[in-house]
Specification:
Oligomer: single chain
Helix content: under 10%
Order of helices and strands: EEEEEEEEEEEEHEEEE
Shape: globular
Largest sheet: 5 strands, antiparallel
Distance between the termini: 30 Å
């Protein structure tokens, strides 16, 4: 028979816990809309400036399927941040999608993928650009994550709220090698 599945990650107020790397940036893509973040800051990707930096703007909510950069606080308990489901209380169902989106060249993924050379990825909180010689573990992007696909707007002049020095060129054309 079937057994009821309960979740320790979701409470009655629509708050759910998400495992993050304390003090480090990571791309997160969720199938649900999020209306708030606790335990760090969330950012949308604006593009690349003239100084070869990726520029991000802080956000307080994100639509379902849209990737965002999350920078967790350095002193998080249990390595978990709290996210809040949009429309979790009331008669409306939370927004949900099965399609991960591209947000200014930050490509969300729901299933793990392997990317080609020239993509930007985070590994252990550090930003790297994949090469043809990159080890598989560096090219593998985990589920509910994302990567930078080289389609970012260039010459962004906005100051932004968070920046990453890219130290190279993110310019992949054929990003996906294969899904897991």
């Amino acid at each position: 028979g079937f057994e009821e599945v309960t979740s320790d990650n979701l409470d009655v107020d629509g708050e759910f816990m998400w495992g993050v790397q304390s003090g480090k940036p990571q791309v997160i893509t969720l199938p649900v809309a999020v209306s708030g973040f606790n335990g760090g800051k969330a950012y949308k990707f604006l593009g690349e400036n003239a100084d070869n930096e990726f520029v991000f703007e802080e956000i307080s909510s994100v639509d379902a399927g849209v990737p965002f950069l999350f920078v967790a606080e350095a002193d998080l308990e249990n390595g978990e941040a709290a996210f809040y489901l949009e429309n979790a209380i009331g008669d409306e169902m939370p927004e949900y999608t099965t399609v991960a989106q591209d947000q200014n060249g930050m490509q969300g993924v729901f299933d793990g993928v392997s990317v080609n050379a020239g993509c930007g990825v985070f590994w252990g909180g550090s930003f790297m650009i994949t090469t043809i010689n990159s080890a598989d573990y560096l090219r593998n992007v985990g589920a509910n994550s994302g990567y930078f696909n080289g389609k970012q707007p260039k010459g962004v002049t906005a100051e932004g709220d968070y920046k990453i020095n890219v130290y190279g060129t993110v310019d992949s054309i054929n990003q996906i090698v294969a899904g897991d």
